[in-house]
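Q: Can someone sanity-check these two? First one:
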Amino acid sequence: MKFTCVIPSFLGQYPGAASRRDEKLVRAVRSVLDQTYTDFELKVIADGCDLTMEIMKQFTDPRVEAVKIQKAPLWDGAPRNTGLELAKGEFIAYLDIDDFWGDGHLRKIAEGLGEYDWVFFNDLIFSGGEWVERTCDIRKLGMNGTSNICHKRELGARWAHRGYAHDHHFNQSLMMKSRKYGKIATPEYFVMHIPGNYDM
């Protein structure tokens, strides 16, 4: 199997939480299942969240698995680490519940991987009524996140930092795991916090 997609999901309230995340979870999962590149599995990790497990019952595709874990502290690595432990794919990709993929996302990553152990890429953010490409700088805090990477499972990377900058710290750890990495063409990762059409 080429890819495992990991989606951590907590639908309870916390400071700064996006609204209507139940709808956005459905949009995110559908965007994975709509991929034109089909050699993948999807692990949705319910972070102590019964509502996530209830919502996931509607998805019967055998590539999808939802697993509930004990509630972790905010910005903890446990949900994504659980996804890594369950993963069977050669490469790991991540998706946040309030974002979504265009249907060519995994195909574009697969085409760009080459001999790399991990790759990073820009994303698209909905701003001012249009999609704007946002530059990923893998070395700068605040300019890279979980949306911007895909890595080999065999690197053994784990989410060790607890806090809002957990994604940046994880990406820095990838640099220490392997120097066989590169930036590839912008895939179709859409950062948008409004429920709506996920195939834009």
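And here is the second, same format, sequence then tokens:
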Amino acid sequence: MDAFEGIAGIRIADSDGVKVGQKSIAIGNPFSLESTVTAGIISAVEQFTPSIGRVRVPMLQTDAAINPGNSGGPLLNSQGQLIGVNTSIVNPEGRSSAGLGFAVPSNPLVEALANLELGGLSDIRDTRPTFGARVQTLGALPKGIRKALDLPDEGVLIIDVLPGSPADKAGIRGSTVVETLGSFDFETGGDIITAVNGEALNSAEQLNLLVSYESAAGEELRLDALRDGETITISVTLEMIP
């Protein structure tokens, strides 16, 4: 007799509908304590943490206690529906839990289910297009640094480009100069993307969302960029990079 006979699968919610402040429930085996349940709220959505792959994932942030052993367990809403899969914590002072837990939203999971059901492995890049460049948010640099390097206050600086990537095929240029200010080195000279399809671009996270989560492979994006002090337009055709 099948051990799972008569057991219904968990219902999967649309993670795009998750709101800050709604209840969240985490289930897992923290420190090998099986079937532990903790509860809290959704603290933030589309929150970026240190990457777990080549494509950064906009995570759900929760203050439900999550510890080692919770990873892979479900994050539920108040109706018991899956809204995410517990993945990581931010633990800057060495504490087991600092109220900063993160879960991969359910929608990317749904996209990968077909491959997972066949026993395969899945990475977010299997289903999402990528840009293929390492970038720097200019607004994150101190104003004095931007002034010293003659950089604008807003936009995204291209640091380097992955060979054969959509960015490379479109002719986007990476940094060519390393400037030293004090004891820090800064890569400059690359294209500065200021807008995508007419929408002002303010951060690397915004570019990631536009490319990997709001666009599809084969779609063409129109980029406004600064190159050698002049404004140019670059067309990039997105694709998935194996």
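A (reply): Looked at the second one. The chain is about 15% helix and 35% strand. The mean pLDDT is 86.
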